[in-house]
């Protein structure tokens, strides 16, 4: 309280002369105005604190290096520094916008995880096991074509060459394989969906 | 009563930076020494 009536210019001078308490007085005297000014533009407490801190780091460096020459106009000078830092901040965020979770906006509305849940994975595994069992029920020639096409990713040309049949026969076997699979599924009312 | 359509002012008189920020600044100031040699200035931070 003793420092309350000392003008800013004198406090600045005292600080430059090595009186650290003078800085504390200056910060206490103006923190509300400066922080309020930053917050009015930024509307985020954490970022405002960062900018407030950066502002005073500049102030301290300038005063300690004796580069300050604005006698008696301490607050407008500090405000100008913080204003420049606010502009810098908006330039940066324009390039890389930051989204923060608020009541109206959930970050998860733009961020989602498409991978299956544990339950989904278990169901998928079960479906695959069931499907393999069903394939085992098919006649050998159809099973062979279906496995080569679906599991070994071979073309019908390759399949026809390997099984020594024409492409049309391979295609026909594939078609019958799928029809038979559907029949078995319908007959036993098996649900193969995730 | 008339409705107030203007946005609530963000700046309030009681807004203050975090105590940690002010305390950091005061410690930083105590630790910092700026030495000017010719045209160059060097920041020295004491531990």
The CATH architecture name of the largest domain in chain A reads Orthogonal Bundle
Superfamily (CATH H level) name of the largest domain in chain A: RNA polymerase sigma factor, region 2, helix turn helix motif
Question: What share of the residues of chain B does DSSP label as strand, in percent?
Answer: 25-35%
Instruction: Write down the CATH topology of the largest domain in chain A.
Output: Rna Polymerase Sigma Factor, Chain: A
Overall pLDDT of chain A: 87
**What is the makeup of the main sheet of chain A?**
none
- The whole-angstrom Rg of chain B is 21 Å
| SSE sequence of chain A, one letter per element | HHHHHHHH
Query: What would CATH call the class of the largest domain in chain A?
Result: Mainly Alpha
Strand arrangement in the largest pleated sheet of chain B: 1-2
Rounded radius of gyration of chain A (Å): 37 Å
Oligomer: heterodimer
Low-confidence stretches of chain B: none
Low-pLDDT runs of chain A: none
Number of helices of chain B: 1
The number of strands of chain B is 2
Which chains share the greatest interface?
A-B, 24 and 24 residues
Keywords (chain A): Sigma factor, Transcription, Transcription regulation
GO molecular function (chain A): DNA binding; sigma factor activity
Domain RNA polymerase sigma factor 70 region 4 type (chain A): 131-169
Protein name (chain A): RNA polymerase, sigma subunit, ECF family
Could you explain the architecture of this structure?
The complex is a heterodimer of chains A (194) and B (47). Chain A is mainly alpha-helical and 194 residues long. Chain A folds into 2 domains: 8-109, Rna Polymerase Sigma Factor, Chain: A, CATH 1.10.1740; 118-188, Arc Repressor Mutant, subunit A. Helices cover 70% and strands 0% of the residues of chain A. Chain A has helices at 8-16, 20-42, 45-64, 74-95, 118-136, 140-151, 156-163, 167-188. Chain A is rod-shaped and about 100 Å long. Chain B has a domain at 17-47. Chain B has a two-stranded antiparallel ribbon with strand order 1-2. Chain B is an alpha+beta fold and 47 residues long. The A-B interface holds A 20, 23-24, 27-28, 31-32, 35-37, 39-40, 43, 48-49, 52-53, 56-57, 60-61, 64-66 and B 9-18, 21-22, 24-26, 28-30, 32-34, 36, 41, 43.
């Amino acid at each position: 309280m003793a420092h309350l009536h000392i003008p800013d210019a004198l406090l600045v001078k005292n600080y430059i002369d090595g009186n650290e308490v003078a800085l504390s007085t200056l910060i206490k005297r103006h923190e509300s105005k400066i922080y309020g000014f930053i917050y009015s533009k930024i509307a985020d407490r954490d970022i405002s604190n960062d900018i407030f801190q950066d502002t005073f780091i500049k102030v301290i460096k300038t005063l300690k290096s004796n580069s300050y020459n604005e006698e008696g106009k301490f607050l407008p000078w500090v405000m100008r520094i913080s204003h420049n830092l606010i502009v810098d901040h908006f330039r940066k965020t324009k390039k890389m916008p930051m989204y923060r979770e608020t009541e109206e906006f959930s970050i998860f509305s733009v961020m989602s995880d498409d991978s299956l849940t544990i339950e989904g994975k278990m169901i998928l595994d079960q479906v695959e096991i069931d499907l393999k069992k069903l394939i085992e029920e098919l006649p050998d020639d159809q099973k062979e074509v279906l496995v080569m096409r679906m599991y070994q990713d071979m073309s019908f040309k390759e399949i026809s060459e390997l099984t020594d049949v024409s492409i049309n026969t391979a295609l026909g076997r594939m078609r019958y394989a799928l029809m038979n699979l559907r029949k078995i599924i319908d007959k036993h009312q098996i649900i193969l969906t995730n | 009563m008339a409705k107030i359509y203007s946005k609530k002012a963000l700046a309030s008189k009681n807004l203050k930076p975090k105590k940690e920020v002010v305390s950091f600044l005061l410690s930083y100031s105590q630790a910092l020494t700026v030495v000017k040699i010719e045209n160059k200035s060097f920041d020295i931070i004491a531990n």
